[in-house]
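User: I'm curious whether this sequence folds into something compact or stays loose and floppy. Could you predict its structure so I can see for myself?
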Amino acid sequence: MDQDKKHKSKHKVYMEHSEHKKHKTYATAAWAFGIIALILAIALVVSFLMKPSISATTGISEDELRTKTMAYLAKMLPGQAVSIDSIKDEGDMYSLKLNVAGRIYDSYARKDGSFLFPSGIDMNQPIEAAAPTPTQPENIPKTDKPVVELFVMSHCPYGTQSEKGILPAAKTLGDKVDFKIRFVYYAMHGEKEIKEQLTQYCIQKEQNTKYLPYLACFLNDTAGQGSATASDACIASLNIDKTALESCKTASDEEFSIMKSFNDQASWLSGRFPLFNTDKALNEKYAVQGSPTLVINGVQSNAGRDSASYLAAICNAMNTPSAECQTQLSAVSPGPGFGYDSTAAATAAGCGV
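Assistant: Here's the prediction. I'll summarize afterward.
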């Protein structure tokens, strides 16, 4: 419990739940859910124009819709508080009141359960132009070879989004940058996350040249969503030394008390999240609060999650930008989660408490 108190002290801003959700960006499941609401609400109109009408007597029941919706949202927003307060039959569709991290959304679903729309648009209301969001200045020091550290949880959908965005930039710059994946000091996605992070920690530490190819391979696990099977397949395909890897994992587990902490819930952060302390000192040094957190030359960066933005942020931290900085990379953010077949609007959402 003393360790828990120490972490709370080190990260007190992140632990003040109600104020953090108002003013910070990591515990923002509701905010992230709202970002996609406008896009999907437009899809609501399109779907009803393009698909045949479903009569009030067909489709799935309210209970079936509740079960299906909750299962989907559990995958979409892992580790977040989500519930359905009510479901109402509206004829051709159901209306739902979704409670996401304490925020209520008036949402809709087709009667056959094929589409969920987080919110609707009242097209009788006038549209007001949104004011552009100002970019916050960053006081990142310049160096000849920037040190770039991305703190993530291996199964946080926004962490994987960030990794997919930064990998092309890291590969483009090569040895012009000192790039590392670091791990947030607690895990939110169960034992699978702890075991995968231990695997990644050891590959990066002892078989470094194979780490980025391994990560790119693992992030492509659309079917298994970051499964142990996918990890094993990536290890085999890249000829990673399995014996050395397992030896490192055993030693690191003992050094950082990873599974010991996992099996002792009294040691967990707030009694809810097991500790993962391979990068504990750096978490404390940079005041890391959640996944993802990007640190360039010792200063947190708010760079966008598309590859072009990451490349620009890193190159801006160089005393003399290298020729690789002229490379044209994608300016579209990859979608959250596993797989490379989706894109997303710009977001600052993440996983954290």
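Summary: The radius of gyration is 22 Å. The first strand starts at residue 82 and ends at 89.
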